[in-house]
Amino acid sequence: MLGKLPSATPIVANRDKADPTCPSGTFRRVASRQKTDDFCFTPRTTPTPNPPLPIRRPSRAPDTTKSTMAARRALRSCTARSFRPSTQFAAQTCRRTFAASAVRCATTPTGNRETHFGYETVTEAEKQQRVAGVFSSVAESYDRMNDFMSLGIHRLWKDHFVSSLNPGATNPPGRPQRILDVAGGTGDIAFRMLQRAHEYNGNPNVHVTISDINPSMLAVGRQRSLSLPASHQSSLSFLEANAEVLPAAIEDNSLDLYTVAFGIRNFSNIPAALREAHRVLKPGGVFACLEFSKVDKYPLFNAIYKQWSFSAIPLIGQLVAADRDSYQYLVESIERFPSQEDFRDMIKEAGFDVAGQGYEDLTGGIAAIHRGIKPL
């Protein structure tokens, strides 16, 4: 039986013994009683084990709950300041530093922030350029394509949108009603506004400005306006402008009604556009938006609608306008646009009062009308 000796000490069997005839450091193994069977050997040693590594115990993470909550409160304050309307191209944004329990408002140049172009993630500047390319490409066929895309229903939606706003019905005698129709290039909404005010309400004291960032769309609108009655033409003007940074010519608290139909989903920075709408409207002025929306409340209808949108509309774009890619983007932009509830909340965050649920679904939610009122 082998006995365990201290570290680095030879392990020697009880039949093994030191022998002066063996080399130094070796022992003689007595294998049997026959002397001739004896032999010299080097004993096995047990190495000294390395000392154990120190055990690192995880340090307890600091409790950041209070500091995080403080940072969030500061963020809300910072955000409120940064949402103040500004005509600068650099919009204020807030950056959080929870580790230091600090929040600072910083100026981020417009164009460097990320947004979406359909399903692609791009910078705001790139989206603006690409959207401009899309609408320059489809300007001539845009209204015709809307008929194909919506099976003509968009005309009913627009008629209902304008009649619900009823321009020319409420402005006091002698005071003109000023309306800004944003992203209104081809004039579809503006012309209906003037017709409603002049012919239905008998009030010619209404002026509509068509604003669009795309000169090609404005050119189509100008050409179409030539067929309007002279009284309508005198109540109409055109303005090439970015809805996210409206020009100084549109002063603070100067408009009675701000409309945008099927355009806001193409903006690079929707919150900035909403803040600009709030800035230029008078207290009590109305923000009104008609936009494609969600039909999630009706799963079967939603499935059919999406199949139509993603399969038929790009194909129609190819056949009618020879431009499949532009209409593929338009479909994707509809899918990416916020839900009715989320967009309503964005309108509230811009400073508007919203009555009731804040929106009206059209055709099961394919489109929706949103309204906000600037507080008095």
UniProtKB/TrEMBL annotation:
Q: Which Pfam families match?
A: Ubie_methyltran
Q: Which reaction does this enzyme catalyse, per its entry?
A: a 2-methoxy-6-(all-trans-polyprenyl)benzene-1,4-diol + S-adenosyl-L-methionine = a 5-methoxy-2-methyl-3-(all-trans-polyprenyl)benzene-1,4-diol + S-adenosyl-L-homocysteine + H(+)
| Region called Disordered, residue ranges | 1-68
Q: What is this protein called?
A: 2-methoxy-6-polyprenyl-1,4-benzoquinol methylase, mitochondrial
Taxonomy, top ranks, is:
Eukaryota, Fungi, Dikarya, Ascomycota, Pezizomycotina
* EC number(s) given by UniProt: 2.1.1.201
Query: Family per UniProt?
Result: Belongs to the methyltransferase superfamily. LaeA methyltransferase family. Belongs to the class I-like SAM-binding methyltransferase superfamily. MenG/UbiE family.
UniProt keywords, alphabetically: Membrane, Methyltransferase, Mitochondrion, Mitochondrion inner membrane, S-adenosyl-L-methionine, Transferase, Ubiquinone biosynthesis
GO-annotated biological processes: methylation
